[in-house]
Amino acid sequence: xxxxxxxxxxxKADNDMNDAQMLTKAKQLLREKNKISxxxxxxxxxxxxxxxxxxxxxxxxxxxxxxxxxxLVFPTKxxxxxxxxxxxxxxxxxx
Length: 95
Prior knowledge:
Layout: H1 19-33, E1 39-45, E2 56-59, E3 70-73, E4 75-82, E5 87-94
């Protein structure tokens, strides 16, 4: 609580869900969301195949010292910038 304050997710239950189904759904959300994640933002040469939700292997010699040499990542946000002389993309991935 001291570090981030109250973290909460609000989910609307279906009308036909009973108490046991709602408890199962709550436990599933807790398993998915109850972890610390870090975000990595990278600017790279543009590739049309890279979009949010598609997976790819990310390799970096500079980040190898941090244990992030090669890893399968799923981008959460990708912004392509088309310039007459240059095409780049800003990628945001959860580590």
